[in-house]
Amino acid sequence: MHFEGDDTLVFIGDSITDAGRDRADPTSLGEGYVHDIARTLRERAHDGPGPRVVNTGINGHRVYDLESRWSTDVMDHRPTVVTVKIGINDTWRRYDRDLPSPVEEFEACLDRLLATTARELSAQLVVITPFLLPVGPDQERWFEDLSPRTDAVLRAAVHNGARVVRADLVLPRAAQEREPAELAPDGVHPSPLGHRLIADAWLAEVAPAASAAGR
């Protein structure tokens, strides 16, 4: 996609999207992949400001929390691109708080959000898959919940014509060449390098540079 100055890109999700943003400042993008994407798009704009980028990620949120604020935090911005990164907390809360998020309900909720956005806006939808880089033996068992949840994310994305950024493939592939903790110190929250890898994967899928895209 080629972005103009009047494009609005909304990113919504949990702490991985939030990345320490200042919620009192609507222009704050945090220090994660959203910030990296916005910086790259500004650099590519050359003589213009680049698209407007909005970060509405909130630490700790599950898919149901997104639904409760979708109207104000997504739809009211009238975005041309909406990126959703959600799922790891729906898995994590099962193990640390015994708070389940049945995969069927999770998928139905995400599907509703994407379908509503596709129906009411002419926005490009983008979904970033959840990922986990286990740094301890206790996290290995999370995959029994996370793997089918990732499949659910992929189904919802395909059903609604969303582009997919496979963080669940990109980060584990990178972890084959370095320690997982270098990419996500606690297995969940990316390091600056982890965030950069997510940003690069988003850019490659959604906004490849003209020279690399060949078009």
Report what the structure shows.
- The chain is α/β, with parallel strands linked by helices.
- It has one domain (8-213): SGNH hydrolase (Rossmann fold, 3-Layer(aba) Sandwich), CATH 3.40.50.
- 50% of the residues lie in helices and 11% in strands.
- It is built from eleven helices and five strands; from the N terminus they run βααβαβααβααβαααα.
- It has helices at residues 15-18, 33-45, 63-73, 88-96, 103-120, 137-140, 143-159, 167-174, 180-183, 192-206, 210-213, and strands spanning 8-13, 52-55, 81-85, 124-128, 163-165.
- α2 crosses α10 and α3 packs parallel to α5.
- The longest helix has 18 residues, at 103-120.
- The chain starts with 7 loop residues before the first strand and ends with a helix.
- The relative contact order is 0.15.
- The model is unreliable at 211-215 (pLDDT under 50).
Task: Compute the average pLDDT.
Answer: 94
Shape summary:
globular
Major sheet description = 5 strands, parallel
Which stretches of 5+ consecutive residues score pLDDT under 50?
211-215
Oligomer: single chain
Strand order of the largest sheet: 2-1-3-4-5
From the helix content, strand content and strand pairing, which structural class follows?
Answer: alpha/beta
Number of H/I helices: 11
Query: From the alpha-carbon coordinates, what is the Rg to the nearest angstrom?
Result: 16 Å
Strand content: 5-15%
